[in-house]
Amino acid sequence: MRNPVLAATAAVVTLMFAGCGSGSSGSPDEIRLRMIESLTGPERTKLIKSLIADFERANPGVTVELISPPLDSADQKITQILQTKKGLDVLEVRDHTAKSFSNNGWLAELPTTGWPGWQDLTELAQKKAVEVGGKAYLIPYGFYQRTLFYRTDFGMTAPPATWQELYEAGRKMTSGDRYGYSFRGGKGGADYAVMMISAYNGDALNPEKSFYLKDKRTIFSTPEATQALDLFVKIFKETSPPDSVSWGYPEMVQGFTSGVTGMLIQDPEVIKTVEESGVTAWSTAPIPKGPTGYAYQPVGYAGWGVTSFSEHPKEAVKLVQFLSEAKQSIAFAKGNSLIPISRQAQSDPQFSQGAWKAYLQAQQDPKQVITIRPVDYPGWSQFLVDSDRDIQALITGKKTTAEVLKAWDTFWVDQAKKVS
Amino acid sequence: MRTFTVRRARFIALCLLPGVVFVVLFTYYPMVRGAVIAFQRYNLFDLTSTPFTGLENFRAVLAEDRFWTALRNTGTWVAVSLFFQFFLGFGLALLLRRHFRGRGLYQAWVFFPWAMSGFLIGLLWRWMFNGQFGVVNDLLLKAGLIEERIGFLASPGWAMTSVIVANIWYGVTFFAIMIMAALQSVPGELYEAAAVDGASRLRRFWHVTLPHIRPTLALIVLLRIIWILNFPDLIYAMTGGGPAGSTDIITTFLIQQVIGGDYGRAGAVGLLILALLLAFSIFYLNATRFEKAR
């Protein structure tokens, strides 16, 4: 190339793209996998890295580079990388991203036959692995199921079994700077309203499509939904700190551990946080029920998947399987206070004693029902954003119960038409 | 001679090339792509079919009350933040211009916020303004200024005030830095001449300092308006646009479209912001040019 400008251009472009390649390796025999996590946190990342180190020791010649983007923007980052269809082999897939990722052809189907680890997965783990289109696009690493945390030093002898009892107990606890309930009014707040509305709809609800009743109407269209949402507002106004209009996860937990609130409904990962906080007088119970004796909640989950464009699919699958096998998955569930995916964990004392007992109780109660939310409907992500704002508008008096329920009903009636 | 000029031009082009490639790849390409997406049905849920839908995304956005609320909030957010940032920054610059012991250290300390990420600042202020555990409430209670805790981020009126206070704290230093630089560029002889003519300090400021730094002020005010409008980080971390959209500005509204997975609508909002800023910049530059010509 005699023209220096052309030569320089080629050099610059080559240098720029050299850093963008995927699966590039230092030596010809080395295989480098790139893996990205979504629900990042310092301790969790450390744990994943230690499991990866075990994998690398068991698989000489394979190295894994872990990418840990900031929690708040992780899913957007993952989506951006997936859109380029390069530079990624293994990724964390969440319940609400599984459908869109697979729809867009970004996930590879994982082999389940011929892998002994599959048989060791609990029934729930197997079910959730193939929830999207009947194909295993991810292997869950654990489950997030909510439970009621309550402080026994707040004068409570027995936990509330219904939402009405929770409201009454909360009122008793509320005085001065002390409140009954850690209300979630910020991001994710609408989920709690939906949980109450579901419980109030009782056995009319269709657990497989939990925003709809068995007669195909939405759960937001019934008089019971109005009762539930009215009580939801009362719980906020009469038992919760006014500031909780903007509380998210950290404030809720901080409220409970600092002694500002006496009750909290949260995922099992809070068990570890409460244990480490120094609070000693506390216990857990299954989430409250509605008037007909039913409680509904989805089980949140996430897992590991392999990209459809991985340059090393064999090794990527091997890594996912390694992380999902009993030893690693139990270590991960313990480290993150998750409900484990391995059948072998049932004999582990950690998961059958103390605060974990409430989960076993819930599992044994046929009226504590696990539901499936319509995460696979095109408007799901939009609803998450809009419904949280509606809840804030409701509890700050900018919208009425009727307006919120009407809007949600219209939205999901429209979604049903789009899907059918 | 001609060969030398051609060679020189080639050399300059060569030096500029990496920059041009980067700008095209990382600024203009995403911008054009975003503009195209604004006219497509581009929902993250299903990217296998992304047909062109004309102005549909714009119609949907403009039909939303939330968009107009966000637009009104943007006006408050920019105007109030800018007003206080400017005047406090100006005051700070005048103070820091003076020579005193430890000035360098003091300057570094004052300018420190500017070096931090907006999102991080938002998180810090979110905890400071927390109604139950926040330090602001504690201080006000201990000082006897309030009798009960204020839900700074819980009530719509307080929430907007709180995010603006945080933004003022953040942006004052920018004005202080820029105005201080402008002040240092005023020739000392002008002040000496004015002093000889018997001008008071106020008259010197009004007739010497201000005219000299006015072009810089006009430019930094324009820049700051654009930056404040495009600064959702702090609001997003502090309130997420809540409660009930009361702190939503047009750029947090855009983020919500992205999180909702509707990139088409997000693209439309992006283009509307661009049009708004472009129209404002043209108006502002014309207005300040007129001022200069007069």
From TrEMBL, chain A:
It comes from Nonomuraea rubra. This is Multiple sugar transport system substrate-binding protein. GO terms for cellular component: ATP-binding cassette (ABC) transporter complex, substrate-binding subunit-containing. The keyword Transport applies. InterPro entries: SBP (IPR006059). It comes from the Bacteria. One of its GO terms (biological process) is maltodextrin transmembrane transport. Keywords: Signal, Sugar transport, Transport. Pfam families: SBP_bac_1. One of its GO terms (molecular function) is maltose binding. PROSITE patterns: PROKAR_LIPOPROTEIN. Belongs to the bacterial solute-binding protein 1 family. The keyword Kinase does not apply.
UniProtKB/TrEMBL annotation, chain B:
The chain crosses the membrane at residues 12-31, 76-96, 108-128, 158-183, 204-229, 266-285. The keyword Nucleus does not apply. SUPFAM superfamilies: MetI-like. It holds the Pfam family BPD_transp_1. Keywords: Cell membrane, Membrane, Sugar transport, Transmembrane, Transmembrane helix, Transport. GO terms for cellular component: plasma membrane. Residues 71-284 form the ABC transmembrane type-1 domain. PROSITE patterns: ABC_TM1 (PS50928). GO terms for biological process: transmembrane transport. It comes from the Bacteria. Its main location: membrane. This is Multiple sugar transport system permease protein. Belongs to the binding-protein-dependent transport system permease family.
